[in-house]
## 1
Amino acid sequence: MEPSDDVALDIIITNVVAVFRTRCHLNLRTIALEGVNVIYKPEYGKVLMKLRKPRITASIWSSGKIICTGATSEDEAKQGARRLARTLQKLGFKVRFSEFKVVNVLAVCSMPFAIRLIDFTKNNRPIASYEPELHPAATYRIKTLKATVQVFSTGSLTITGPNVQTVATAVEHIYPMLSECQKPLRK
Amino acid sequence: MLSGPVKAPVLGTGFHTSLGKESRAQTLQNGKRQIHNLGSQLQLNQHCLDTAFNFFKMVVSKHLTRGRKMAHVIAACLYLVCRTEGTPHMLLDLSDLLQVNVYILGKTFLLLARELCINSPAIDPCLYIPRFAHMLEFGEKTHEVSMTALRLLQRMKRDWMHTGRRPSGLCGAALLVAARMHEFRRTVKDVIGVVKVCEATLRKRLTEFEDTPTSQLTIDEFMRVDLEQECDPPSFTAGQRKVKMQALEQELAKKLDEVQGEISLYRDEIETELENSRPKLRGIYAAYAKEIDPLDEVLSQASCASPREVDPEEDEELEAVAQHLNQDFLCQVIQGEKQGDERGGEGGTEEAPPPPPPPRGGPSLASILGPLPSAASLGLSESIQECIAEDKDSDGKSESGELDLDGIDDKEIERYILNDKEVRVKTDLWMKQNEEYLREQKEKEERIAKEKEQGTYKEKPKKTSKKREPIRASTAGEAIEKMLEQKKISSKINYDVLRDLNSKVGSGNSSPARPTSTEEPPSGPPGRKRLTRRKKQPNKTNMGLATTASIMGKRLRPLISSAPKKKRAASQVTPNLTPAATPALPTLSSPPTPTPPGPTMVESGPVAYDEAAEEEEEEEVEEPCVSAWQLLGGNEYGCEAEEEEVF
């Protein structure tokens, strides 16, 4: 999904996190013993199952709540989640696929210019925060969208938001502010 | 808790009102004390401390202290002040003092700044230069070196080296160069000790600076001239380089593709010829081809398959794969040409993504398979590709499907599930791996069952709280060991001191006295109590146990104020070890060894005290410590201690 301005920026979605419920109690030990690609973590009380086709890692709890991470698109997340539910069904549990929700989307984007972080922070005082001692990027939180953008001095952005649309909107939102504080290229 | 004004009129429940007032006042008082404590260690002036206290009052009134450690909040308030006043204090300093992870403090700090709407100005590395220069001891020329370093820093800023970097790293690099310019020999190690970054960072900064045109100037030129040209940030140039590399790689890949295209052309030609010669086998190819894929998966997943290396070269791979496939197919396979088919299937697997299964034995088959390696491989490749295409179809279906079952390839999912034999194997493995955990679970269940019978079963999950049994040990060392294992009960006792004492005082004290001897300090005069309280917090950490255990049995300065300082103390104190016996930790249970230190300790008591005092003063500006021996007042407190029962 690209913003609809003159510049075509590549927003690459790197991670989509989704949750869903199976509405039934799951026996983690059975899953651990009969599943092919599972890791059982008894101290955390969950099972990690990794799927290959959509590359997805799922944390499965015995209450039936499952968190799916590693997908590269919302559709893929849903597909992977359904596959997972099907696998669990085959293992013998009465699985129902309910309350699927994409919780977090992480995307990266690269500006064709470098950015002066200190000026950027000064212009956007309370919303943006920059602590070089702690993290090399300036963090810009958009409350209305519930999205966070991390701006690096090289011009790369890391955007996290609740869905893909929000991420695109966030980039559009922040682009003008960034181009104000851009550093003109010399070489 | 009352949220109203402190001076609210006393209403009906006067008792509660007064309590609420006190609680808030107490919190503020406590906070003030801690601020002063911490602030004086940082050498902040009174004005800063007052401002910090104001921040703290605001924080408390906004209830931001809830759920956070007071120490963190105090540190964050102090750091806020440092930032607004522009003092050269780093968050790292604060975290050093508190022994807390700097990122945790940073989180608290950011949150407070956000909630209090305090926009602190960004850190300027120039602020740190005078401080670090002072620490590096340039003597009279400190000012000059500082100025040079400042100029260097400004140059770095213009060259875009400073955005997104820790200011201390830049300072370090600037100071290092400035020092060399003024002919001071400061090694990288000196600088990193002062600046608190790691060597790699410093070297990287220096390299980056080297890349800028400024580095080409001589010293005099630098002082006079300021280059106009600005550079791009180094990570940006690195990024550009990466992009170029990727472009190059793409070109290479394209060329490779072309070459591969030629190879596949040849292959196709051979294929078509073979097709003409062997029409019948195609059907069987297809049948076998379908079986190959699931088998591949199963074989690769089976835990009993021992991983063996698969040669990357084509022919060897073909043979190896052929061998293993033959093992399984033998019963189903017709000899001769059919074997050629399977080999062909394996050849096809090269093109297909499935991993080549590990080869098994069967060298004799290789000889049979020797002739015609290429023939069958090409024939099967197409059928393998058909297989892959099937998978892709199933993917497409699942994307469009709406319900759970639609479009999900059951076969593929079944691959995710092991069959019975594999389940058994995996169960065994898992059981072995998690034996300890399973054992614990069993014990827990038994315990609960037993308690249910007794009627004392608690619903809450019990924490493994050990019963406080009186320590019965035959030797000093054993007693100490047992005590060390026990959880620390009182925070008002400096356990480390006691342990050392126990080892030194040794056989003189009988074993029952040993556990009670831990209570001696609290019975000391208030002056000592003050000291012990100071050590309260760090002693709570389990770190203390490990470190003091390691210095057990060595002659130590009697009072070691805190766990981390202990570590430093340990290294500092080792040179101060008296010639008394220093049994190592493993030899704790050696009764004879404590006796010689016994008498010697009396003599060198005051000596140890002096050393302790010196070291203490070196580390911190705190009141001089009293030696533990003096704390104990010789043996006269032994009797009193026995009367008290802290455990």
## 2
Amino acid sequence: MSPLVEVRDVHRSFGSGPTAVHALRGVSLDIAPGELVALVGRSGSGKTTLLNLVGGLDRPDAGTVHVAGTDVGALDDDGLVALRRDVVSSVFQTFGLVPVLSAAENVGVPLRLRRLPADEREQRVARLLDLVGLTPHATQRPDELSGGQQQRVALARALAASPRLLVADEPTGQLDRETGLAVMALVRGIVEAEGVTALVSTHDPVMIALADRAVRVVDGRLVDGPAGA
Amino acid sequence: MSAGARSRVQLRLLGVVLVVLVAGLTVLAGCVLLLTTGADRARQAALGQAAVDDTTVQVVLTDLGDDPGPAVEAAGGALTAALAPVAPGTSTWLTSTVRDVPPGADGGRRLGWLAGIDDLTARADLVAGTWPGVPEPGAPWPAALPVAAADALGLAPGDTVVLDPTTGLADAAATAPVTVQLVGLVQPRAGAWAQDRLAGAGAVPDLEFGVFGGTRLPAAGPFLVDPATLLAAGPGLEQVALVAAPDVAAASPAAVDRITDELGTLTRDVRAAVSGGPATSRVVNPLAATLAAADARLATGRTAVLAAGLLAVLLTVVALGTAARVLGDRRLAETALLRARGATGPQLARRALPEAALLVGSAAVLAVPLAVVATRAALADRLPGSDPGPLLPAGLLGAVAAGVVVLVALLAVGATRAATPGRTTGRGAVARSGADLLLVGLAVVAVLSLGGTVGTDPLLVVAPALVLLAGCALSLRLPPRLAHLADRRAARGRALAPVLVAGDLARRSLAGGATALLVLATAAAVAAGGIGATWSVSQADQADLRVGADLAVPAVGGIPGPVVAAAGGGAVSPVVARPVALGSLLRDEDGDATRLVAVDTTAGVLRGRLPGTDWAGATAGLPAGDPEQGVPLSGGSVVVTGTAAGTGLTAVLTLVLADPTGARTTTALPAVPLDGLPRSVVVDGDGTVVAVAVDLAPGPDDDPDRVARVDLAVTLPGSVPGWVATLPRGQQGADQLLSGLEAVDGGIGFRGRLVLGALPPTGQRVLLTPSRAPDAVPVLLSAGLADDLGADVGDDLSMAVGDTGVPVEVAGVVPDVPSVPGGPAVLADAATLARVLVAAGDLDVAPQAWWVAAPDPGAVGALAAAGLPDAVTRAGLTADLRGGPLAVGLPLGLALLGAGAVLLAVTGSVLQAGAVRSGRRAEVARLLGLGVPRATVRAVLLLQHGIGTVVGVLLGAVVGVVGTVLVGPALTGSPVPSAEAQFPWSSWTALVVGLAVLGTAVVLPVVRGLLRVDVAGALREGGS
Ligand SMILES: Nc1ncnc2c1ncn2[C@@H]1O[C@H](COP(=O)(O)OP(=O)(O)OP(=O)(O)O)[C@@H](O)[C@H]1O
Ligand SMILES: [Mg+2]
């Protein structure tokens, strides 16, 4: 079976001249369908940069990124938007909730994009909020939620779309151990139950343990295995 | 965001702040200029355009006694002192009592008089001979005569005349005869002879003369002599007029202010000055009235300009507050850091002071010249020829300085205030409700106590600002409610965009933000337009009522209706306009005499606003009685056949002729003896004979005890059905003097028995008319008069027209009678009135004016050429009232406010768009990151901003319309008729659509930029 994600010798740098930052320097990575891959690395090592490329939020400077057979680097802005809508769902490191919408409405955004009937949408939103333990906070707006609660809303939203690929940037970074565990179990469960493929950056050894495999980023290059995490 | 981008955004914001400051300060400075130099220039221009007669001051001394010198000198001193600030020249005009001039060729008695004018050379042109000088002792006085007087008297230069004191006058005995020698002939200059007995005409055939004016004799004069000599001669002076015609238009504003005060006490001062002698003084002071009228009209403009200025200041403060808040938000991090380091609010404000001072200072430096140039240009256009005054009046500098201080403080504090919580706290909401309620309460009180004031009313100045502010506060409560409803609907729907749009509108606070500015500014612009229209229409209403018709021209004796109709070009009605007494009421509370206005109500000439109806409808019931069938007569003669056997009775016939316009003239025929013979009498004049009055007078030898049978027939060309013969209504005992009066069958004539002995010297009058006159004249009363009389529709009243009592019946009440704004007046149908007057024996119904409907464009000139000067059109008067110098304040003040408000409304939209640019970057990145299509994001952004803008503009428009209704009429002063709020829908629509489109369009480039956001980068930043 061909991999769902195919990253080949990808380079990405920011800025130019002497101040340029080479965030990725020749990264290659394949992820098979239904695989849960943990991405580990120190702060600033390039995790988010790689996730953005795989999540269709960014284009590589060199090399190719294929997601579900689509060359991400060749897509125009609208193509990227369509990819994000139809194929990949991201949990951003900064959550990215829409401030004027309540927790439930935020979770409902991908469903509205698909114009799901209201009843169906409400049911699905309620179930997802229940899964992340936020039913009592459904009507609160992001600025009325704690950081951990916002993070869980972001995860519920990413799952709502039933994506083929879930890209989550430190989805448990703001959570206490117990909640973090529950959330990771949830991700693992969904990967298994719905055949979702997932790429999750994390510092959490438990998450690494739950993953099918772990890849490590060091200074913009991939190193196999979780050793030294 | 990079530091460069941050400072670029701040620079852009500072630019907006500068625009707000320049706009606000320019409107403020413009208003101050209108109030100071503008008002002075307006008064100056108005005085410059005023007729000379309206700017003179005259002290008239009579009963001067034997030694008039000291009184004349004292009164002259008082007059000069009062006008000292403008140092006018005073001219003295001495007029002697009437003297007898030696009889002329026909031996008849003729009158003349002497006059001494100290500025004669400026009032007349020398036609022949020399100016009269100082006489040699004992020699005749050198004198000049107007050419017309010399012609009438048959005198030429070189002739010597003795002017004898006329017997019968009070001090004739003390007055010495004067011998004058004619040395010159002069031609009086037009308009400069108002003090002359004959206004410079030179001669009249019938000067009213004698103690009761009972005698009429030919008179000519004056014999113009050296004034000092005439004054020194002592007795025999009838009056001395001291005339000052100060050039107030050229005087400084301060000087005009001072003489306005001085003139108030002039009557008292002059009386005190001449109190030592016998002289009686009278002050004729049109200048004081002119100045007072100018000040009253300027006061209306001043109130409106002050109100506009206040609104502009309010708008500026709101705009600046909004901009400062946005700026403060942008600097929140910086401020928070400083606060964390222990800086207090005042310390932060002090830190921000230099920047604020620099901004406001530069704005003032831009705004003051802008305002000066703009107002000067506008005023030069409206007030040509007026002195522009100082470039920077002290008032302007003071007001701008005060404005600068306030704005600097506001800006420094606003830009450094602590962060506000995103949602209004419970206590904040309660405080806001309280403030809103207080505002609404104040506005209601202000509006309820408006009206009826003259001069500058502080309440009226603050009322517009209060009303608009309260309206704004109230209206801003509406959109969140609507948005909540929409939000709830959208939440139940499938689509994403509606939730995003409605959620945003429902959850972002509007009050205090750019939306509040947009609403208030739109309201101000709309109200400025509405108030302007209200004022403008009110000027037209006032002009309509004052003129009464499209064109009104005073009648000049002898010029008949057809000539007026030919020159005027439209339907013409003769107008009888005279003072009358109605019921027991001579004058109303203000001392105004009741005026009768009688027009041809079928000619459709009446104009003016009439609530609920038009003049044709209102006057439909005024013509009364059967239609009058007169007999056309074109020159030629009538035949009178009368019999009164055995008497020397004569009959004098007076024909009442109506011309095609309905104007009536009378023609008296020579006396006809009633000897049974037909007498043919030539009639001078043509028209339709509508009445014949027959005055029967006894012959010198008639036996007083006799009763004579009188039989009289008048034969007019053509066949005539039977006319009616009546005795004058209201003449006591007439039916005993002339009993058994009956009309002849067919034709015009009567029979009756006359008691010769009881006949008064003027004889007994019999009236022959085609049909019976109505018993009473139906009239419309002005509302004030009906109130004063307590009269209702259907009431019968008695009206005295001259000496004739006319029964009238109240057919209706109108707010005002055309041409009598605000005064007590009676409107009647001219023909009906004339018939009832004729029935009472009163034939004198010559018109005082002509009113023309739909005149030709050149009618005023054509009428003047036809001998009818002084025509006034309502279009012309409207233009004068709207464009005259004294009307300059209100429209310009409103224009300034309107322009400033539009600019600030757009600024509100720009600020809102700026908030979109800075506040939505993260949100746009998030939506795009989630896979929301760019088209959807674009639509959401446009709708969020567009709906906010459109709703803001619409709410502002509603508030502005309400403001127009509530304060518009009061701001136009206290005109008659009272102003009605106007709704200039088309210009309002253009304004609202323009603001909505422009306000929405400013966000387009912002949206385009936002859609190009670096999604990954923006998401990395996080935050909101
Ligand atoms: N938009 C950008 N502009 C400039 N430099 C960037 C940008 N994005 C990433 N970088 C740089 O690239 C490097 C990798 O960043 P990245 O966010 O991928 O790290 P990370 O592994 O996700 O770190 P963390 O665990 O702290 O989230 C960093 O040095 C960062 O400064
Ligand atoms: Mg990261």
